[in-house]
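User: Some background: our group keeps a shared notebook of sequences we're curious about, and every so often someone picks one and asks for a predicted structure to add to the entry. Today it's my turn. The entry only has the sequence so far, pasted here. Could you supply the structure so I can complete it?
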Amino acid sequence: MEETFLISVCIPAYKNILFLRRLLDSIAIQDFRDFEAVITDDSPDEEIKALCEAYAGQFPIRYFRNGRALGSPENWNEAVRKARGEWIKIMHDDDWFAGKDSLAEYAAAVRANPEASFVFSAYRDVFLDEGRDREMFLPAGKYKAFLKNKSVLFARNIIGAPSVTLYKRLPTVEFDPKVKWVVDIDFYIRYLENGHPVYIDKMLVNVGLGSEQVTQDCRKPEVEIPENFYLLGKVGLHNLKNILVYDAWWRLMRNLGIRRKEDIVHAGYNGPVPPAIVSMLSWQRLLPLGLWKIGPLSKTGMFLNYLFNYNRF
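Assistant: Of course. Here's the predicted structure to add to the notebook entry:
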């Protein structure tokens, strides 16, 4: 009979031996033991496999070499497909558990909240290239808005990276391989459409942030613009009526220097552009881009434009 576990720690790996060793070391010391680790490897060599074999006697660990490199996020999905646990704990190989009680805290939250299907915690951002860190706790006011409308994640990802989450296996909801930049908030919005989230107000995970991450290659108009329009189409244009979502789109256009519909097409999106966003662009052209980066002026302009477009949603 196949062994089962409460939690599967799913690790999509690619080359990062030093980072992965740090993560596996943080797994090996966990007080909670009803878990397995599942590694799916996109690497072109055997180094990750050899490293995983070194931990075989310390905790249940299963290694799978992908027949071809799946890339992000399909490698995440592959790790989840291989899992045997009731709950899925994605851990990216440059992240690691903050303490030996981290998994125990997640498991305790599951047991204390039998109606829950999704758990997330506070975390620590660790800037690997800069030698500094930042503590990230859930902002209460924005969480209330999130519980009313999950699409406010457009405005700010208050949950965090997938490594800070634990969710009940739901085979019908996977990470969308069509996106990279919005992949986490897209998953959260779809998963939590009918799910019940629980927040743990303790820093349980260290999230490594560095120049080599996939997301660093995504911070450009030709990635962000098509993906954000794609996600808006999935969740529904009516969500622009939420002022937090509207403000997020106002800032997206401003920060990426998008001034005209032609700029959107140049960035790689050829679909319909909602009239409200066309209006945003026309208003932002009224002033030099640098002036719109003055916070109070930008907020005032956004709010007036929001009121102007309210009946267009």
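Suggested note for the entry: The longest helix spans residues 221-235. The longest strand covers residues 197-209.
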